Amino acid sequence: MHIRRLVAFLLGAWMLGTGFMAYVAVHNLRSVDTLLNAPPVKASPMLGLLGQNDARLLLHHQVSQLNRDYFLRWEQTEILIGVLTIFFLVFATPLRLLPVGIATLATVVVLFLHFFISPEIRYLGESLDFVAITAGEGLRSKMWALHQVYTAATLVKLAVCGVLMAYLLWFRERAVRRRRVVSELDASDSAHVTQAVR
Fold this sequence. Notes:
Structural class: mainly alpha
């Protein structure tokens, strides 16, 4: 029972962390425009020396570097969560192939993103950091396609985690009902025995 709760906690942290990372990435990128549109008073002269376009490229580079590092660390954390989830399902709960298979699928998705898609996104991103928005159309198209693949795979991962969470909750509810029925039967048998003795 406690192990299933731990697995459910890991899945919840996995799903919430994924959503939080998406929020952080979008928020960081939007912060560049927010800063340039309403810069602090003391920063205005510095930004003026750089010029609007160069300041945007520099700030966008910094934000992109942060996002790339955040996602690298998060993917490493996801792999750890996935491995722990599989471990608990295999060694600490009654073995059922369905939940183990679902958890393995989610972990495989993360491994695919971490080792095949993210390196390409990081490489292209670093190549485009100081390229004007009107240039590098071919690289930007490839970057957009990779981001689409990343987003689609992330949605698949979230759906898989959601299915596993629903399965665990359903299994827990079924186990509770089964124990309740067994308790009622035991109580009924005890009552019959008591009456027979009398």
